[in-house]
Amino acid sequence: MKAVKIGVLGLGTVGGGVVNVLKRNVKEISRRAGREIIVTRASARDLSRDRICDIDGIELTTDSFEIINDSEVDIVLELIGGVGLAKELVLQAIEKGKHVVTANKALIALHGNEIFAKASEKGVMVLFESAVAGGIPIVKAIREGLSGNQIEWLAGIINGTGNFILTEMRDKGRDFSDVLAEAQALGYAEADPTFDVEGIDAGHKLAILASLAFGIPLQFEKVFTEGITQITRADVEYAEELGYRIKHLGIARKTEKGIELRVHPTLIPERRLIANVDGVMNAVLVQGDAVGSTLYYGAGAGAEPTASAVISDVVDIVRVLTGDPEHRVPHLAFQEDALSDIPVLASEQFQTAYYLRLTAEDKSGVLAEVTKILADHNISIEALIQKEPLEGKKIVPVIMLTQTTLEKEMNAAIIEIEALPTITGLISRIRLETLG
């Protein structure tokens, strides 16, 4: 059969990895796809720079639109990132009747509803396995492997930079700023690390996973995000002392009132497998009503792990090129006319347990005041530790774990506690999930 021709937009880390893996494994990939897959064209901003891939036989250009308009190109791989030019290129490729594979989580999270509607209108596929958790086939697992389940919740370590920072803080007793500088030096974090450490990157990915899991439109703007910049060595150590580890999680949970979409630092019992996912690795835990808990673990970034996911999408497209467009796997797992209008909850409606760290004057009656305020807001204490007074001061750190409560109540209680004259500074709050 005629070979399928690929146009690659962007020859950076991921684009170069895709070319290398396609060339190295061409026979095996062809056996799986049923047809030969070859990269014929690629675009890059600078054609003179050295590449990590073999570009022999590939026609290069600085103009990505040349590839979009090339009638010989069957599938376009959008690997340039960003949401401006990338969106324009993807929509034009769809308009030209070309299938698209993208690794661009921001593009899908922010503009996926529009893109998928256009793709359905034109009868083409837009696949995005590599947009979430790198080489882990989590999109396919939820969209296809777990299609017999009602997904109850999912929780994931879906940003390797944040996980690397928290792992180093725990294992080596280092401060956040110190580890962040190393992550930047190692290339794990950008010069501006905001997207990683403030949860925006994970929020993009969580919006995608939630759509796949619950059959709702993409709604990144409703994802609650909280970063890890305020996590201290003391918090990490106290969590360990209590039998927990701190991870930066993306959590999507279906409740009777609606769907929780939240990214934040989270205490997890240290016995949970996901609590032992360290360094730059990713993992996603999915709870289905039929299958129970399933865990997906692997490299969340990198040239060839991400290339693995990109190529899996290419193979899927090639397998169905001659198939009936009406019977393809839906972009967001559910048929387009069956997407649900289940509301996404505001953060005050979240229900979770909490870790609280506060600094109080070392005298009788202080904790009684604190616990009374919590009780007034229907918040029960699960565990409490009062540490030794800080050196040279008459104040003591107090650590509490609460039972599950409504975030609205916790917000109000913290405001009241911080207003007490016997409480020094702000209260450190970290949400707690047992993931059981």
Secondary structure topology:
Blueprint: E1 4-9, H1 13-24, H2 26-33, E2 37-43, E3 59-61, H3 64-68, E4 75-78, H4 85-95, E5 99-102, H5 105-122, E6 126-127, H6 138-145, E7 151-157, H7 160-172, H8 176-186, H9 194-197, H10 200-214, E8 224-225, H11 233-241, E9 244-254, E10 259-269, E11 281-288, E12 292-299, H12 303-319, E13 351-361, H13 366-376, E14 381-386, E15 395-402, E16 405-406, H14 407-418, E17 423-432
Parallel strand pairs: 1-2, 1-4, 2-3, 4-5, 5-6, 8-10, 10-17
Antiparallel strand pairs: 7-9, 7-11, 9-10, 11-12, 13-15, 13-16, 13-17, 14-15
Helix pairs in contact: 1-12, 2-12, 4-5, 5-10, 7-8, 13-14
Describe the protein.
There is one protein chain. This protein has 436 residues and is α/β, with parallel strands linked by helices. The protein folds into 3 domains: 4-135 and 303-338, NAD(P)-binding Rossmann-like Domain (Rossmann fold, 3-Layer(aba) Sandwich), CATH 3.40.50.720; 138-299, 2-Layer Sandwich (Dihydrodipicolinate Reductase, domain 2); 351-432, Alpha-Beta Plaits (2-Layer Sandwich), CATH 3.30.70. Helix content is 35%, strand content 25%. It contains 14 helices and 17 strands. The strands form 2 sheets. Strands 7, 8, 9, 10, 11, 12, 13, 14, 15, 16 and 17 form an 11-stranded mixed sheet that branches. β11 (281-288) and β12 (292-299) form a beta hairpin. It is elongated and about 80 Å long.
